[in-house]
Amino acid sequence: MTATISPWPVCPPPYGSESLHSWFERVGAAYGLSAHRLLSSIARGLPRRPGRQGAFNVGVELANNREIAQRLVALSGLPTCQLSNLRGTRTGWELRRREFRAYCPQCCLDDLNRGETPYGRRVWQQAWYTVCGIHQLPLLQRPVSSIAPSWSRHQLQQDVQFAADSGYRDLKGLPREPYTRFYIQYAILELQKATHNALAGIRPRRRQWGAINAKAFLHVLRDVTTWSLTHFEPVRSWSLAEELTPIEISETHQLLSRHRRMTSADYPADRSARSLVDIENPGLRSSALWFAHSVMASFHQDASDRPTAYRRTVRQDMHIVAISPAARSWLSTRMQAWPDRYRRICWANPTPEQPKSRFNGPKWTENPEILATK
């Protein structure tokens, strides 16, 4: 098959940390083609995969279609190992579309300053990664276009300023107490680091995350973010992560904001629940990660001037009493697969109805973590 295919006359080499879709998009731009048009030309004559109808999902086809991968090797002249490196090591946290949809504007501006075409990093396709670990800027979402948009230095400079305003980069390193908004980004970066380490097999810090190993931590994080993004109610509504105070809403800007309620289009066709990997918008994923930090971390600072320093199980109960019995039941079912000691010490029981009068601020002095062990 490959002997009859002529290699591309022009094929830009991939960068070291580049994602497969980003490189494929740059190849298409060299010929004035969108990624979809280029994929269609490569796949011409190949049978469509079972269950795959309509237009190609470019990212999925590039990552999973062996026939297309073989043709890419022949057309590009890249070694098979280099093409595999573009795909990256599978973690199970890849966004479902696997396309170049999120970007750090400062990283892309740095690419331009080096005389390179801005390119997508593989880590930007990880659902848990929503803030750039290098520049401490929230990732932004690229506009959907039939062709790869051109990169303007002026526009990227504006994007950097917008991201800095949203992520409060300038507050990093200042005293925390007068600048409580800093905690939004701090919490997400802390959770990102713990997730990155857990994927490498490193146990999360026990003092902050409890007695839990790396694999179980990732399991709990997946369940909690799915729970926060979906109420599991007959009528789909706001996620738990969006139940913010007016002060929080005014201070979080694009990092956690939502402008509309969820619709059926927000859910995969075969499921009634959303998980992180289903959501392209990094701002929406940040909201779920912010929520996960609020219920999983020993210490969590709210992004407002209201009284804080609630214990972990108190924060959990404050959310549990506000959701439907179906949502409590789902969480309780998922918790059965969590480590018993971790669940007993670090989590409140979501099943029983809890009187709301217990949560009138910090006056309540019972220690639910002690009660949970009785």
Question: Which helices and strands occur, and which strands form pairs?
Answer:
Layout: H1 20-30, H2 35-42, H3 58-64, H4 66-76, H5 80-87, E1 102-103, H6 105-113, E2 140-141, H7 153-167, H8 182-199, H9 206-209, H10 214-229, H11 246-252, H12 282-296, H13 312-320, H14 325-335, H15 340-346, H16 368-371
Antiparallel strand pairs: 1-2
Helix pairs in contact: 6-7, 8-10, 8-12, 10-12, 10-14
Detailed description of the structure:
The chain has 374 residues and is an all-alpha fold. Strands 1-2 form a two-stranded antiparallel sheet. The protein is globular and about 65 Å long. The N and C termini lie far apart (68 Å). The C terminus is likely disordered.
Summarize the structure.
It is built from 16 helices and two strands. By secondary structure, it is mainly alpha-helical. The radius of gyration is 23 Å and the shape is globular.
Oligomer: single chain
Q: How many separate helices? A: 16
Order of helices and strands: HHHHHEHEHHHHHHHHHH
Q: Tell me the structural class.
A: mainly alpha
Strand count: 2
- What Rg, in angstroms, do the CA atoms define? 23 Å
Largest beta-sheet characterization? 2 strands, antiparallel
| Spatial strand order of the main sheet | 1-2
Strand content: under 5%
Return residue spans where pLDDT drops below 50 for at least 5 consecutive residues: 168-181, 232-242, 252-261, 354-374
User: What is the CA-CA span between the terminal residues?
Assistant: 68 Å
Number of domains: 2
On the 0 to 100 scale, the average pLDDT is 77
Dominant shape: globular
- What is the helix fraction of residues, given as a range? 40-55%
